[in-house]
Amino acid sequence: MKVKHVLGISGGKDSAALALYLKNLYPTLDVDYYSCDTGKELKETYELIEALNSRLGKDIKTIFAVEPEKETPYKTTFDHFLAEYGGYLPSSTARWCTKKLKLEPFEKYIGDEPTISYVGIRGDENREGYISKKTNVQSIFPFRKNIWSEDVIKEVLANNNIPKIAKLYNSLSPNHLKEDILNRVNQPISPSFRQGQKLEFLLNSDVKLFNRVVFEYLKENTNYPVGLLEEFPLIDNDEVLVLDDIFKILDESGVGIPAYYIKKSYQVEIDGKIETGTYSRSRSGCFFCFYQQKIEWVWLLENHPALFKKAMVYEKDGYNWMDSETLEELSKPERVKAIKKEHFTRMKRQLSKRTTNSWKDEIIEAEGLGCASCFI
Questions:
Q1: Residue 357 pLDDT greater than 80, yes or no
Q2: How confident is the model at residue 374 (pLDDT cuts 50, 70, 90)?
Q3: Does the pLDDT value for residue 372 go beyond 90?
Q4: 34-48 b/e with 16+ CB inside 10 Å = b?
Q5: 187 with 167, same domain?
Q6: In whole angstroms, what separates CA 5 from the centre of its chain?
Q7: Exposure check for the chain: N or C terminus, fewer CB within 10 A?
Q8: pTM of the predicted model, to two decimals?
Q9: 86 and 185 share a domain?
Q10: Does residue 354 carry a pLDDT above 80?
């Protein structure tokens, strides 16, 4: 049975690097690239997608929830659904934007064909990302030590599957590892020996062996898309990629990092002294993303004033992007100064606690905020 391979290009660093990584490492893997266009991305996002498109040698398909000015009279899909929701802006507690603009068009694009979706979550991140509820879609995480999704791990390491996993390890393990591994495999998960501990032991013992066992289990016992393949080359890859690796891939490819990550300077007066700080955008996504930090709104105001004004226009009838203040209030000079002062002071404090002096640390810290499902 034919299995489809797909990778969503969000316009961010990780998905772009993953596309380049898979193309270079597995040139025979026929991956389809797609991008969910909301119509409200930063211009730097569109520039990155265009640069990546030329490097991949294969078009990145743009998919829409509804095609602007064809399936809807509106010029963007965001505006279409905003009208459907009666002008109610999305928020952290009502993320209709993620559902309508990203997830539903992705699942419509996939259809019912068995599909492997490659996700660019790195080895230095502690999150799972979006897992489709469609049974024909399986997520794989090539940058992590554990490439498998939580649902797969839960099934493979379930106590009732111990005999099957033990049999596979017994036939596939090298002699010098077999006894120790089988002792752990045969130990049931319990309050004193949790799934995470068992997984970590098996990964640390031999990642490639663990991947082979999981692959064979999926082939023999499930309908997961990976299990429908004769072979799956990623099970022999034990690389773990972190943020520095991502930037290296982008630099060496010529695509470069997304321009919104490039730090820009700002000045702020603190206790009578002019201090110089830096700011940038911390993620891809819509220019008015409600997960932005206050300093990112200031960055938008000062670097993309036209987009900031467009974001302001959406605030009406009591619907705002932030609970605490409107964009009109945030844009007042004294408020901008206060935000910069708070940001500069906080960054100085955090810098004193870091073991490295890198702007990349700020990206890692900011990545803990936001919606993982949005970046597909």
A1: no
A2: low
A3: no
A4: bbbbbebbbebbeeb
A5: yes
A6: 17
A7: N
A8: 0.90
A9: no
A10: no
Q: How far apart are CA 185 and CA 359, in angstroms?
A: 42
- β-pair partners for 268: 275
Cβ atoms 91, 76 nearer than 8 A: no
Tokens 């265009």, residue located: 50
Question: What whole-number distance in Å separates Cα of residue 56 and Cα of residue 254?
Answer: 12
Token pair listed for 99: 């559902």
- Say how far apart CA 199 and CA 204 lie, in whole Å: 9
Q: Extract the runs of DSSP E, i.e. beta strands, from the chain.
A: 4-8, 31-36, 60-63, 115-118, 137-140, 264-270, 273-279
- Whole-number Å distance between alpha carbons of 298 and 282: 13
| Residue 11, token pair as written in the block | 């316009």
pLDDT in tens, 26-65: 999 999 999 999 999 999 999 999 999 989 989 999 999 9
Which range of residues forms the domain containing residue 330? Answer: 261-374
Residue pair 138/130 in contact (Cβ under 8 Å)? The answer is no
58-99 residue pLDDT tens:
999 999 999 999 999 999 999 999 999 999 999 988 999 999
The CATH code of the domain that includes 144 is 3.40.50.620
- Classify residue 101 by its DSSP letter: I
Question: pLDDT at position 132, please?
Answer: 79
107 φ, ψ (degrees, to nearest 5) = -70, -30
Identity at 12, one-letter amino acid code? G
Q: How many CB atoms lie within 10 A of CB 60?
A: 18
Question: Distance (Å, rounded) from C-alpha 200 to C-alpha 265?
Answer: 43
Claim to verify: residue 191 and residue 114 sit in the same structural domain: no
> Do 184 and 140 fall within a single domain?
no
Average pLDDT, whole number, for the chain? 92
Measured CA to CA, the distance from residue 12 to residue 222 in angstroms comes to 33
Percent of the chain, pLDDT > 90? 85
Whether residue 142 sits in one domain with residue 11: yes
d(CA 205, CA 214): 14
CA-wise closest residue to 261 among 241, 284, 289: 284
